[in-house]
Amino acid sequence: MNRELFGVFGGIDTFEQFRSSDDFDEVLAGPTLTVGIRDSDLGVPGWSATYTGDEGRCLVWGESYVPTDDPNAARWLLERYRADGIDALRDLNGSYLAVIDAGPTDEAVIATDPVRSRECFYTDEPGPRIFGTDAASVGRTVTEPTLDRDGVLEFLHLGVALGEKTPLSELRRVPLDSRLTSTAIDPLDRFVYDPQPAADFDAVGELADRLERALRRRSVLPGRKGVLLSAGYDSRIILSQLPEIAHSYTVGSLDAQEVRGARAVAAQYGASHTAFPPDERYLRPDESKRRYSQGIKESLHIHHAGYTDEIDVDTMYHGLLCDTFFRGHFTAENTVDVLGKRVPTGRLESDPDPVDALLEKFGYSRETSLDLAERTSFAVDPDAFVRGAIRDEFDSRRSRADRIQNALTCCGIANQPSMPFHNHLSDNFLTSFLAADRDLIDWHLRTPPERRTTETFLRACERIDDDILRHRPPDRPHDTTLFNEIEGFVRRKTPFLSSFEPPWPDREALFERHDFDQRHLGDLPHVHSLPTRHKLRVIDLRGWLEFRPEGAMRLRSWLRPPDPAVA
Description:
alpha+beta, six-stranded antiparallel beta sheet, about 15% strand
């Protein structure tokens, strides 16, 4: 990876047992904690920073903003930490990982941002606790790794390893909104739902004000600026409020509805637009994508990875997770039957089953999972396994939420499948993560789930820019979800009417056109009939495990057809 944080709870001699200091741009060494950082943009305003002084050492990795005019976020954090302890993290804003070593009288800590938009992997297997941002680098320190069957199965069936699991039993992740010390993992309380009555909290006005502040905060990121632009709602508000963004990029054919819509939005705000054709590069599961999946999430979400060399900007903006934080993606909606299709009404389900709701949001396919189980040697009933895993994960998040709908969203945020998208961008560009803004997270936590809707978001955006909907998304010509769903259904069923196109290229066609079965799964012909998405998960997992060949060999034994004699 281009950027990396790696550390140990121990001195420089312990650090050097596992990594060379020469691998990093800077190493902060103390008697109880040593950490290295590699980042060519270290010290850029709004980005990674380090500080060493008589009072200790501090490192902030990633996007970071502080409430004062101090240009060094690490120095500010260390000073506040010595005064206020762990509460200092409440005022650190951005998408970051913080390492704080405040001297001999305080225990060193590593803390995620409130929503864990930056993963921290750790292991105790070699002896001292080792941590870092690259799962493969930390995993290499494990002397005798074993595959975590549950983590592997969750990834294959759901596209995400839940909770703190990875493919290796000895490798874990720091939980959502938590801190890591030399001997413990402690939860923090920055991400706890506290919905406010409508009379006391104007959801539309507060969201509009906070969006403006968050975008203004992120305008300090330097250099040539671009945005990954869709024809939908989320990225256009960024383009509308940051006129210095000169370039926009979309993956899709020139004649696709999504590309035409994005091009119109770009022209509205005076930005150039580039469409990358969905060729082999869109799906190619090589190192340019696979490493960022960290073995826990699908690289498929890194739509732009194959085109990185053609993106000529220094700073990149995106709208990832705006639908989750502002528009209720993980809440369970009430539906009605319209000609055999379940159509959401725009109202929340009064008593949702959390397992069923989350399985639908994660895109679980019972039939495909049964097919996968019949073709491999994992001795487990996939439906019972997946339902149990989802139930356990939901229960683990329940204490942070006041009601089931908020617990569903908390569970979705803690296990967001699309995070490799941000991992890749932030490794190759200075990257702004709007949805991870502290003030916007606070809005999310204080706004009742029935008001975290597309309508609320669009009303807030229109207060900022009353022309924001000049060009509507091609598949959402109406103000209400129900009308959009009905028109989509009518178009699909009526001759001579064109259907709404999906926003992303056809994965199945590209996979077949470029013969990925033979090129990437030639030794596993029995899985060729599985859907493309599940085959891409197999390719991701095998490729990521190549950093430890014994792990890849063990996975291969599980992927073989079941032994008829055993069955």
